[in-house]
Amino acid sequence: xxLNLVRFMMLAASATPCLARRLSAAFSPTVTRTxxxxxxxxxxxxxxxxxxxxxxxxxxxxxxxxxxxxxPQTSFDDGKSPFEITTPIYYxxxxxxxxxxxTSIASDVIARFMRLSGRDVYFLSGTDEHGQKVEKTxxxxxxxxxxxxxxxxxxxxxxxxxxxxxxxxxxxxxxEDHMKAVQHFWKTLVEKDAIYLGAxxxxxxxxxxxxxxxxxxxxGKAPTGAEVEWVAKEPSYFFKLSEYEDKLLxxxxxxxxxxxxxxxxxxxxxxxxxGLRDLSISRTTFKWGVPVPGDDDHVMYVWIDALAxxxxxxxYPNMDEGSSFDKFWPGSLHVVGKDILxxxxxxxxxxxxxxxxxxxxxxFAHGWWTKDGEKISKSxxxxxxxxxxxxxxxxxxx
Length: 398
Prior knowledge:
Strands 3, 4, 5, 6, 10, 15 and 16 form a 7-stranded parallel sheet that branches. A 4-stranded antiparallel sheet has the order 8-7-9-11, with no helix packed on it. The chain has a 3-stranded antiparallel sheet with strand order 12-14-13. Mean pLDDT is about 80; it is low at about 1-65. The chain is α/β, with parallel strands linked by helices. Helix 1 packs across helix 14 (about 385-395), helix 5 packs across helix 6 (about 145-160) and helix 8 runs antiparallel to helix 9. A hairpin with a 6-residue loop joins strand 1 (about 35-40) and strand 2 (about 45-55). Helices cover about 35% and strands about 20% of the residues. The chain has helices at about 1-15, 20-25, 65-70, 100-115, 130-140, 145-160, 175-190, 245-255, 260-275, 300-305, 310, 325-330, 340-355, 385-395; strands at about 35-40, 45-55, 85, 90, 120-130, 170, 195-205, 210, 230-240, 260, 280, 280-285, 290, 295-300, 335, 365, 370, 375.
């Protein structure tokens, strides 16, 4: 598996020829006996690839025929509608590691396959730049939070360029448009009576940016192995997650293809069936976050900020007919790591249901990359630098 990823990364990063695109073309039912040529995108400065058929013009399918073919219909995709695919937005407490490269490359192959099959694709990636962990790391480095996230976000963008990732947009949660969209989303939830002010105390993992109950802890740590700390009682806004337990279970039942693979779906079902508690969605003990509208003492819990990127990147709250939101939402596929499954499979659809917005069509949660039996993690300090890996072995494979 490790060698396959290295090969995959080299294919994506190689300047000539455009071999990563050949992989996606090989999976396309609309392309046979193809060669690929680089062309300059008319909408961005990154190089993309399109099929160049090595067959006679009589056998060359027209663009309209290619578009008409689409992809096979499934229970969660009609095979022809506009297709939004997303990576998670990557957390900027440190530079990227091999797991980020893996998720980006896997998503890129799917995006290219869909484009080659005639689908209208919007491929989104970006960086998650708020939260206590970022504020703390920036302070340790003697930097202002914004200066720190500017530097680290750039390293993620450069990685995508190195790997020839074909994302259409790179979003940052410090973007002004995104923060305005998140505040609009918050106000909508307030108007829908989905948020109330209370007080929180309990176990919190700074590394995971996640709250845990006593029963979830394993040997005094989070299920991910992260350290937890006790948060003393502090004011907090809560989302009425407990009201969405039955609605979520009904949705999972009616849409069995929503969560994949099956093991992840079972994990989510088991968690929700244990009962959901209302979710703390604001903090007052740090300031690096999106301010809560009308209450500057609070900043939003990082996940309500981060998850909203999938719609803010489409121009939300503009949902007019013909808008990008109207065209591409609900999103076709979120690709994430299993460590953030709960946020995407439970919190995100519940937030959307509360706001009367459509739920994404599919969520795929892949496993972790491990080293010496432990998850590869910036926080654990056991990362493999994908940039260094590319530079060391990119030419050895050809």
